[in-house]
Specification:
Layout: E1 3-6, E2 9-11, E3 34-36, H1 38-54, E4 58-63, H2 69-78, E5 82-87, H3 95-106, E6 113-117, H4 128-136, E7 139-150, E8 153-159, E9 165-171, E10 174-178, H5 190-195, E11 200-205, H6 241-254
Parallel strand pairs: 1-4, 1-6, 4-5, 5-11, 6-10, 7-10
Antiparallel strand pairs: 2-3, 7-8, 8-9
């Protein structure tokens, strides 16, 4: 089973005080550390687990500059066989442009499955996987928490709202967006990453892919990014049930809600 996994290097934004950049279209990233996107880490692990069970190869792909090869080396150390980096040059990337670039490279590769993370930690758009499936003309499953290939099909478990799951069958080749918790990503040592340097890592430039101007024209523009406004703290209501209920009704009426 040949599997392609699309991954991304993202800044770590947990437990840090974020600052809006000078253009007010993002956060300052110069002081942030970068790691593999959490959802993509699970996607790589799932691909390697499937390869160990069914054979075939795993190819990791990312769009970015030389610094982004760090996550490709990590994927190779986890068990991927090959890696591809696509240099975007001066392209302004959004979900549409990313899906077009990835599809242009992937269409010439052999694959049974394409895996992506459900979303990326930096923008949380959750659109690239679905858009990529549409461009490639593939069936897709989103927020997948289980994969069991069966011949030309695969049984998949999809996470729905309200704590429910859905079991379904999808025809291969297909694209799946992988949810966190589907597995337990393996530990990657520094020595493993060093050994992974012997594996193949190819580099393409977006200018050499033959994409049209329309393909590389982004469809979404971030107008402004801002921190949520500060609000007053919660009001704690104490007392017996009758007085608490009366206070809640009073507050609701003061807010203009009709009972």
């Amino acid at each position: 089973m040949n599997i392609i996994v699309c991954i991304k290097r993202v800044p770590m934004t947990q437990e840090v005080d974020l600052e809006i950049d000078e253009f007010k279209t993002g956060v300052r990233k110069d002081a942030l550390a970068y790691v593999i996107n959490d959802w993509d880490n699970y996607a790589i692990e799932e691909a390697v687990l499937l390869q160990e069970k069914f054979g075939g190869s795993v190819t990791a792909i990312t769009i970015g500059d030389e610094d982004d090869e760090e996550v490709l080396r990590r994927a190779l150390a986890m068990g991927a066989d090959k890696a591809i980096r696509i240099d975007p040059g001066q392209c302004e990337l959004d979900g549409f442009v990313i899906s077009k670039i990835l599809a242009k490279v992937i269409k010439d590769l052999e694959y049974d499955l394409i895996l992506t993370g459900v979303q990326a930690d930096d923008d949380n758009s959750a659109v690239v996987g679905i858009m990529l499936a549409e461009v490639l003309g593939l069936g897709h499953g989103a927020v997948v928490t289980g994969v069991e290939p069966e011949g030309n099909d695969a049984r998949i478990r999809v996470e729905l709202e309200g704590g429910m799951d859905e079991l379904s069958r999808i025809r291969l080749p297909a694209l799946l967006t992988i949810q966190t918790g589907i597995n337990e990503p393996r530990y990657v040592s520094i020595m493993g990453i060093r050994k992974a340097r012997k594996k193949e890592l190819a580099v393409f430039h977006v200018d050499d892919l033959g994409l049209s101007v329309d393909d590389l024209a982004r469809r979404t523009v971030i107008e402004e990014v801002f921190l949520p406004p500060e609000t007053t703290g919660a009001e704690m209501i104490v007392g017996d049930p009758s007085s608490v209920a009366g206070a809640i009704i009073r507050i609701i009426k003061e807010k203009g809600v009709r009972l």
